[in-house]
Amino acid sequence: MLANADTNNQAPLTSTWHHVDVLWQADQTRIQPGLPYYQLSPTWQMLILGDGSPTRHLQLLTGEPTEVDVIDMSFVGSEQDNAPDLIKAVPGPRLRRQVWLRTTSGQRLAYATSWWEASHVDEYLQNRSLPIWASLSQSRTELFRDIRQVFCGQSEALSKAFDHPGPFWGRYYLFWHDGQPLTLIYEVFSPHLNQYLGPVSSNLQPTQVS
Questions:
Q1: How many CB atoms lie within 10 A of CB 53?
Q2: pLDDT of residue 184
Q3: Which residues of the chain have pLDDT under 50?
Q4: C-beta separation of 71 from 96 below 8 A
Q5: In the prediction, which pLDDT does 130 show?
Q6: Pairing between strand 94-103 and 66-77?
């Protein structure tokens, strides 16, 4: 259910979000030059390691507009909220937003949780049902996508939601605007994207790719 945020509420809401149990992860230093193709194929690396909009990429892959189902908008105050430590870069008190990204025909392609400074979220998400990329594009907001970690893991909740046993690949990153961290975003992608991107791992060697 969608929880309405109330920054005047003294007790932060306690609804949870779908983080994965990590099997493997790599930090910014390790992912900067790219990963071995036997671990993550070139096409999947373009999606996960690229600094473009995932909602735009998903639209181009599927040929359908990417729509957003907002499932949670919760005031979490200054709590860690079981988030990556990088959440401390986003000033509190904070608002947590959870969404499913899907095609117009209903196929879920990704899950995302983001944390925002509660006092400024309305400046950037005037229409909270729009993808973040669409909202920020409307306001001509210039951003830098700072990818900090890529991971692979399991999640019972995501297995049910994506109708797939996993494992699931994802990432988290900061959006920067005017030299300040705007939001922390945690994204997990459905393995059903294999039908557009091919297998997650590849037997290709880097020298075979121009």
A1: 19
A2: 95
A3: 1-14, 206-210
A4: no
A5: 57
A6: antiparallel
Separation of alpha carbons 51 and 136, rounded Å: 15
Q: Which residue spans within 136-202 are E strands per DSSP?
A: 144-154, 168-177, 180-189
86-101 burial code (b ≥16 CB/10 A, e <16): bbebbeebbbbbbbbb
Tokens of 93: 């008190």
| Total-model pTM | 0.83
At which residue do the structure tokens 């904070």 appear? 94
Is the alpha carbon torsion for 19, 160, 35, 47 positive or negative?
negative
Handedness of CA 193, 194, 198, 202 (dihedral sign): positive
Give the other-Cβ count within 10 Å of 10's Cβ: 6
Mean pLDDT (the chain, rounded): 83
What is the reported pLDDT for 119? 83
Per-residue pLDDT, 4: 42
β pairing state of 108-117 and 144-154:
unpaired
Written as six digits, the tokens of 23 are: 């099997």
- Cα 194-55-68 angle, rounded to 5 deg: 105
Written as six digits, the tokens of 90 are 């986003």
Helices (H) and strands (E) in the chain, counts: 7, 7
